[in-house]
């Protein structure tokens, strides 16, 4: 786990060997302890270089070990020993030095980084803090403001920025290990005292209190209810105000408050869930690691509305030539200007030149005959989409993949009108598509494994977190959204206001409550879907809309809001009122209040006081309950996939882990009891009836979320 060699006759080269990221597992810590002891005690050795195997210095502590008891040598004394040694130690940083990996580098007397390396203290993103001296040494090295920013955000910096900040001593384009060995030989004669960061005084800005206060307020505003960044501020304050020996104790106390917290468990779960989500398997047995994706050298996007524009930008900025198609000249021109503007702004932000030459705009589908892949992003109308797919089937060469960006329509029905159903798949982007990281890859029953692999790999190339899901109305994300937003609407009927519901959800940690989010997305989208599915339409009496449709309770309020032309932010009015069309500053609207009051009196509903707890339970337990059904139906392969979809597509607070993890943290027994309670009170709402899988898991003793899969016996997986 740590290899030892003598190079250049007097330099001990210690190589961490724990692929893939050389995490500091107990065996690696043990290896470092043994090899350092050998290097320090061998009189032939005059200097030490520490590097990592396979071009990666170290990805930090082994996060998988956090769940169990500490085994092997603890990190802090081990690092203190390296720093205190009388022989110069040089870190040769290639790839990454993150978390404990950077803390290891900080106890080395010198740091050489390869120009492609990335460094950082991302512990805060895992709900903890850099507790191997990171919060005490980094401020001593680079000062409070810069250290505070890096530690509270977990941001990775490039080698060049690390050099500017003073984190590393040299950046090289050559082999960092070889450069470090030469550097170590030159350092032999130099005194080490000034290189031991723990012995330095932290350079302190005069306005320390004001700075810490400002950062605290910023965190409280941005990361409501999240503990770790606040603990990081306190640890950095200790670095500024205490000697190292006391500061390190404070760091350790603060770590103890975080380490076993629910937030840390949730955030670490998210880390692994995100990585698990890419590992898909199909009922045929084909899976992510045995199916080769096709190379995509060119693509087309059909429809230059909000979604189509974002998709075109996402493709072009990763170097894929895109042909964008619209149905009339005016729409094409508007779309062209928007896409070019978005691409230019994006390139400016990233400091690169905009790849405008990759874009082509056309009115003719005939121009798509040679592309490798087409993404259809026209209106959410099955008849229209079918006609597009029929046409594509005629014009595109037989090997072209045909993808739809539908947010919930039947992908297999579209496949059915083509001559190549095996090459048809859903690529459900989230708005705005060039910003949102989530991609639901919707596998129809006839999508081939190569098609799935290609869509997943294209998603990755575009920087998306891609999750393979099965084909059913709404797929995973929007199918679950229905019971969640239905509960919010029923709560409106019963006496709540949009702002009260949104506040409860935002206090829980959602980036936006359900009504503010709907206003942003556009209320007409859901209205169109409801019309398409026959839930509403011209047959409904607008004066007296029925509250029972298709065999279940129905709340007509969202339709009534749309009937008034209130489509959300874009029209300046929705659940809230905005300064102007396109405005973002949501204000409660007395007209909505009137609408709710009139509605309640028309149907004889006596409004009651509704608590935040009821709002959270009804919305979130209904959400998770549908998640259990989705698992039962084989539409998602595991709870992690559902959670990743909600984290990246729906603003679910990461420190709560996602709806399924949250349900497990609340306790499945409690979730079951509360659902039973609410279902008894609302027997006409089937979504509140606890799902058989939830009941089954409770009967099995409520296993942890990672074990649910063993209990899911899907009749037939759709994945
Ligand atoms: C810490 O250091 C605490 C200290 O302050 C000490 C306190 C006392 N542990 O992301 P990838 C796995 S906390 C265990 O797909 P990439 C990962 O799960 C730690 N496993 O690769 C995956 O496994 P699998 C602070 C880890 O190239 C595989 O490695 N450090 C760890 O896209 C490949 O990962 C961090 O927060 C780990 N530390 O990105 C850094 N890291 O193949 C966390 C990775 O089974 N790591 N794995 O799915 C990362 O950010 C990225 O993994 C990294 C590589 C950028 C390193």
TrEMBL record:
<dbReference type="InterPro" id="IPR006180">
    <property type="entry name" value="3-OHacyl-CoA_DH_CS"/>
</dbReference>
<protein>
    <recommendedName>
        <fullName>Peroxisomal bifunctional enzyme</fullName>
        <ecNumber>1.1.1.35</ecNumber>
        <ecNumber>4.2.1.17</ecNumber>
        <ecNumber>5.3.3.8</ecNumber>
    </recommendedName>
</protein>
<keyword id="KW-0520">NAD</keyword>
<feature type="domain" description="3-hydroxyacyl-CoA dehydrogenase C-terminal">
    <location>
        <begin position="615"/>
        <end position="702"/>
    </location>
</feature>
<dbReference type="Pfam" id="PF00378">
    <property type="entry name" value="ECH_1"/>
</dbReference>
<comment type="similarity">
    <text>In the N-terminal section; belongs to the enoyl-CoA hydratase/isomerase family.</text>
</comment>
<dbReference type="InterPro" id="IPR036291">
    <property type="entry name" value="NAD(P)-bd_dom_sf"/>
</dbReference>
<dbReference type="Pfam" id="PF02737">
    <property type="entry name" value="3HCDH_N"/>
</dbReference>
<keyword id="KW-0560">Oxidoreductase</keyword>
<keyword id="KW-0456">Lyase</keyword>
<dbReference type="InterPro" id="IPR029045">
    <property type="entry name" value="ClpP/crotonase-like_dom_sf"/>
</dbReference>
<keyword id="KW-0276">Fatty acid metabolism</keyword>
<dbReference type="GO" id="GO:0004300">
    <property type="term" value="F:enoyl-CoA hydratase activity"/>
</dbReference>
<keyword id="KW-0443">Lipid metabolism</keyword>
<feature type="domain" description="3-hydroxyacyl-CoA dehydrogenase C-terminal">
    <location>
        <begin position="474"/>
        <end position="578"/>
    </location>
</feature>
<keyword id="KW-0511">Multifunctional enzyme</keyword>
<dbReference type="InterPro" id="IPR018376">
    <property type="entry name" value="Enoyl-CoA_hyd/isom_CS"/>
</dbReference>
<dbReference type="GO" id="GO:0070403">
    <property type="term" value="F:NAD+ binding"/>
</dbReference>
<comment type="subunit">
    <text>Monomer.</text>
</comment>
<dbReference type="InterPro" id="IPR008927">
    <property type="entry name" value="6-PGluconate_DH-like_C_sf"/>
</dbReference>
<dbReference type="GO" id="GO:0005777">
    <property type="term" value="C:peroxisome"/>
</dbReference>
<comment type="pathway">
    <text>Lipid metabolism; fatty acid beta-oxidation.</text>
</comment>
<dbReference type="InterPro" id="IPR001753">
    <property type="entry name" value="Enoyl-CoA_hydra/iso"/>
</dbReference>
<dbReference type="GO" id="GO:0006635">
    <property type="term" value="P:fatty acid beta-oxidation"/>
</dbReference>
<dbReference type="InterPro" id="IPR006176">
    <property type="entry name" value="3-OHacyl-CoA_DH_NAD-bd"/>
</dbReference>
<dbReference type="GO" id="GO:0003857">
    <property type="term" value="F:(3S)-3-hydroxyacyl-CoA dehydrogenase (NAD+) activity"/>
</dbReference>
<keyword id="KW-0413">Isomerase</keyword>
<dbReference type="Pfam" id="PF00725">
    <property type="entry name" value="3HCDH"/>
</dbReference>
<keyword id="KW-0576">Peroxisome</keyword>
<comment type="similarity">
    <text>In the C-terminal section; belongs to the 3-hydroxyacyl-CoA dehydrogenase family.</text>
</comment>
<dbReference type="InterPro" id="IPR006108">
    <property type="entry name" value="3HC_DH_C"/>
</dbReference>
<dbReference type="GO" id="GO:0004165">
    <property type="term" value="F:delta(3)-delta(2)-enoyl-CoA isomerase activity"/>
</dbReference>
<feature type="domain" description="3-hydroxyacyl-CoA dehydrogenase NAD binding">
    <location>
        <begin position="299"/>
        <end position="471"/>
    </location>
</feature>
């Amino acid at each position: 786990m740590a290899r030892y060699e003598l190079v250049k006759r007097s330099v001990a080269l210690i190589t961490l060997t724990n692929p893939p990221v050389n995490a500091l597992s107990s065996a690696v810590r043990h290896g470092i302890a043994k090899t350092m002891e050998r290097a320090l005690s061998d009189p032939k050795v005059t200097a030490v270089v520490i590097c990592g195997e396979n071009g990666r210095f170290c990805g930090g502590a082994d996060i998988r070990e956090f769940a169990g008891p500490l085994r092997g040598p603890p990190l802090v004394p081990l690092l203190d020993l390296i720093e205190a040694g009388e022989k110069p130690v040089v870190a040769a940083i290639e790839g990454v030095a993150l978390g404990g990996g950077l803390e290891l580098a900080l106890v080395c007397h010198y740091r050489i980084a390869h120009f492609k390396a990335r460094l950082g203290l991302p512990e805060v993103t895992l709900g903890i803090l850099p507790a191997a001296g990171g919060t005490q040494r980094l401020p001593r090295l680079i000062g409070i403001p810069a250290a505070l920013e890096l530690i509270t955000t977990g941001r990775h910096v490039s080698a060049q920025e690390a050099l500017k900040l003073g984190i590393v001593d040299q950046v090289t384009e050559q082999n960092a290990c070889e450069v470090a060995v030469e550097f170590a030989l030159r350092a032999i004669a130099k005194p080490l005292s000034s290189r031991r960061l723990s012995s330095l005084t932290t350079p302190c800005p005069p306005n320390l209190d004001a700075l810490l206060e400002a950062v605290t307020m910023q965190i409280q505003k941005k990361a409501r209810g999240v503990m770790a960044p606040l603990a990081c501020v306190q640890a950095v304050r200790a670095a500024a105000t205490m000697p190292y020996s006391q500061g390190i104790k404070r760091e350790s106390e603060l770590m103890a408050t975080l380490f076993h917290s629910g937030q840390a468990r949730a955030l670490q779960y998210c880390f692994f869930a995100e990585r698990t989500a890419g590992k898909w398997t199909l009922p045929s047995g084909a899976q992510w690691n045995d199916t080769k994706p096709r190379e995509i050298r060119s693509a087309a996007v059909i429809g230059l509305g909000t979604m189509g524009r974002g998709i075109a930008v996402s493709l072009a900025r990763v170097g894929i030539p895109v042909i964008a198609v619209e149905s009339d000249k005016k729409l094409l021109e508007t779309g062209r200007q928007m896409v070019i503007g978005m691409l230019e702004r994006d390139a400016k932000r990233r400091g690169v030149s905009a790849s405008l030459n990759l874009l082509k705009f056309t009115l003719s589908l005939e121009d798509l005959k040679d592309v490798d892949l087409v993404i259809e992003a026209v209106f959410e109308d099955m008849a229209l989409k079918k006609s597009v797919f029929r046409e594509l089937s005629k014009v595109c060469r037989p090997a072209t993949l045909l993808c739809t960006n539908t947010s919930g329509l039947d992908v297999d029905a579209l496949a059915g009108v083509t001559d190549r159903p095996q090459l048809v798949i859903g690529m459900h982007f989230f708005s705005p598509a060039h910003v949102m990281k989530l991609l639901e890859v919707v596998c129809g029953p006839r999508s081939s494994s190569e098609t799935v692999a290609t869509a997943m790999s294209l998603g990755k190339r575009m920087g998306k977190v891609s999750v393979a899901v099965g084909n059913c109305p709404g797929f995973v994300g929007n199918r679950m959204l229905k019971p969640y937003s239905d509960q919010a609407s029923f709560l409106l009927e019963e006496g709540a206001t949009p702002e009260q519901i949104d506040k409860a959800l935002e206090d829980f940690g959602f980036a936006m409550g359900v009504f503010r989010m709907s206003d942003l997305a556009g209320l007409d989208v859901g209205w169109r879907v409801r019309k398409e599915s026959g839930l509403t339409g011209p047959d409904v009496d607008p004066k007296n809309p029925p509250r029972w449709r298709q065999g279940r309770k129905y709340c007509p309020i969202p339709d009534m809001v749309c009937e008034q032309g209130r489509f959300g932010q874009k029209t300046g009015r929705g659940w809230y009122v905005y300064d102007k069309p396109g405005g973002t500053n949501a204000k409660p609207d007395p007209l909505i209040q009137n609408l709710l009051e009139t509605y309640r009196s028309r149907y004889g509903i006596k409004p009651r006081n509704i608590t935040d707890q009821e709002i959270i339970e009804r919305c979130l337990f209904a959400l998770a309950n549908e998640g259990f059904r989705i698992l039962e139906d084989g539409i998602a392969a595991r709870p992690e996939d559902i959670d990743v979809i909600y984290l990246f597509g729906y603003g679910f607070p990461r420190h709560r882990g996602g709806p399924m993890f949250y349900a497990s943290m609340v306790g499945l027994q409690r979730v079951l009891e509360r659902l039973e309670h609410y279902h008894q009170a609302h027997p006409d709402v089937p979504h509140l009836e606890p799902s058989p899988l939830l009941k089954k898991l409770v009967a099995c003793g409520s296993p942890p979320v990672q074990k649910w899969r063993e209990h899911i016996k899907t009749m037939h997986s759709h994945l």
